[in-house]
C-alpha cells in the first residue's frame, strides 16, 4: 500500500503494546501485505484489512486511507487466531 505518511491511532498503539507487536512489523505488512478485505463505506475514510507474513507469522493490519493526501491511519493490528481464520488466514471460519 502506497502511503506518503503513516499515522498510528491511539487504539492501534494500545494494541501494539498489549500484543507485543513491533511497529516495524506493522510497516512491513503495510508495504508488502495483501489486501484481503475492502471496506469502501467506512468513515471517515475507506479501510482495508491487510495480511502479511513476517518471519513466517501471519499478521492482520486494518488501515484507513485518506486517498487524496495518501495518509494511512493504522486502526488495529493483531495475529489472526487459527480458531477464527482458515489456514490461509484470508477468510473467517463459519
Layout of SSEs?
Elements: E1 5-8, H1 10-18, H2 23-32, E2 34-39, E3 47-54, E4 57-66, E5 71-78
Parallel strand pairs: 1-5
Antiparallel strand pairs: 2-3, 3-4, 4-5
Describe it for me?
The protein is built from 2 helices and 5 strands. The chain has 94 residues and is an alpha+beta fold. The longest helix has 10 residues, at 23-32.
State the gist of this model.
The chain is an alpha+beta fold and 94 residues long. It has helices at residues 10-18, 23-32, and strands spanning 5-8, 34-39, 47-54, 57-66, 71-78.
Key attributes of the depicted protein:
single chain; 94 residues; alpha+beta; YaeB-like fold; 5-stranded mixed β-sheet; 2 helices; 20% helix; globular
- Residues in helices, as a percent range: 10-25%
CATH architecture: 2-Layer Sandwich
Question: Quick one: CATH class?
Answer: Alpha Beta
Give the end-to-end Cα distance, rounded to a whole number of Å. Answer: 29 Å
Number of helical stretches of at least 4 residues: 2
Number of strands: 5
CA-atom Rg in angstroms: 13 Å
Strand content: 35-45%
Poorly predicted runs of 5 or more residues: none
Amino acid at each position: 500500500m502506497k502511503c506518503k505518511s503513516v499515522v498510528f491511532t491511539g487504539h492501534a498503539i494500545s494494541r501494539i503494546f498489549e500484543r507485543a507487536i513491533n511497529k516495524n512489523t506493522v510497516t512491513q505488512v503495510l508495504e508488502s501485505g495483501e489486501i484481503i478485505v475492502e471496506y469502501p463505506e467506512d468513515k471517515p475514510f475507506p479501510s482495508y484489512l491487510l495480511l502479511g507474513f513476517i518471519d513466517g507469522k501471519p499478521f492482520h493490519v486494518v488501515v484507513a486511507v485518506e486517498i487524496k493526501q495518501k495518509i494511512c491511519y493504522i486502526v488495529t493490528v493483531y495475529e489472526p487466531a487459527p480458531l477464527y481464520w482458515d489456514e490461509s488466514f484470508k477468510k473467517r471460519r463459519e
